[in-house]
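Q: What would this chain look like folded?
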Amino acid sequence: MFINSAPFNAEPPRQALVSSYVTPTEFFYKRSHGPIPVVDDIERYSVSIKGLIEKPKEFFMKDILSLPKYNVTATLQCAGNRRTAMSKTRTVRGVGWDVCALGNAIWGGAKLADVLELVGIPKYTNTTPAGGKFVEFVSVDRCKEENGGPYKASIPLSQATNPEADVLLAYEMNGETLNRDHGYPLRVVVPGVIGARSVKWLDSINIDSQDCKGFFVQKDYKMFPPTVNWDNIDWSTRRPQMDFPVQSAICSLEDVNVGRHGKITVKGYAVSGGGRGIERVDISTDGGKTWKEASRYQKPGIQYVADDEKSDKWAWVLFEADVDVQSNTEIVAKAVDIAANVQPEKVEDIWNLRGILNTSWHRVHVQVRHSSM
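A: My prediction, written as C-alpha cells:
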C-alpha cells in the first residue's frame, strides 16, 4: 500500500503481510525521513566509531564482513503503526499507517558488541572510562527535521555491548544483500525496540555521555498523555521511546467486511517489545463480551512456546482462530505477553498528539448478507 512519495513510505496489504512468518522483502514496510541515499562505491564506504573512547577507528565493509556473522529473526515496527485508527478519535500528526507498518525478517550481520570490542569497549560495559554511556548512530540519510542534517538515534551503551541483546550491524535481509530501501550497504537492527532506533544507511557511530540530541530522539517518538496538545507540549518531560508495547492486529479482514453467515477464519499477528514472547491471543465475536483463544505459531512444524529457546524471542507470532458469525458483529483481537502486559481496550485512553503506539484492541466489523433463496 503506497502512502507517500516524499519521503517514500509504504506498507503492504493486510493479507499479504501475514501470508508467511518471515516477511518477504517486497512486503516489508518502507519508512524514510528523506530521499533514499545512494551508496555506490562500496570499496570506499566506511563507518567511523569515535567519541568517548580510547581507540577511535574506521571500519570498511571488509572489516565488518570479517567478523562472526549472526542471523537474528526480529520484527521491526514503526512507532506509528495503526496511527490512522488513532486519528479517527482525534486528529494526530504523522504518516497515516494502517496496521502493516511492521515486518519480520532474518537479519544477517555482525553483532555491535563485537565491533565495539575492537575500539576498546568490553562486552557488558555500562560506561566507558571517558564517561560514554550512549551509542549514537548517524545515517547518510538527510532530512528536513534536522535542517538538512543526518538522521540519527541512540541506544544505551549497556544494550549495545550486551551480546544477548542481539543488536546488529546488518548487511543482509532474508539471506540477501540489503537493498536500498532497507539500508544498503549497512544498517543497525535493534530488536524489540521501535523501528526509529534501527538506523539505516549507517555513516558513523559516536560514543557519548548523553542521549542523542537529534530531532527524532528529543522532539519525536515520545509518549504523552491525552491531555497534552501542541500548545502545551514540553518535550523534555518525556524520555525517548524504546521498547514497543504488546500489540496485535487482525489481517485476514478489513475494517468493514460484507459476507455470508457461517465460519470465518481470523488471522493476524501479535508481538511485544523487549524480547517478551506472546502468551495468549484472545478473539471476540461480540465486541469483547466473550473470548476465544487463538492458536499461535512461528516456524512451521514447531510448537510455539513463548519463552522456549526454540522460539524467536524478538519476532512476532501469527495467530489463527475459526469463529462462527451469524449476524452483524464486531470481531476483536487482543494479545497478552509473558509479563502479563495486555493491550488497552480503548484508543481514547492512549491517544497522543503524535499518534504513536496505538496498541488498543484491534476491531473489525462484519456485516452479514443473508441469502434471499
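DSSP finds six helices and 21 strands in the chain.
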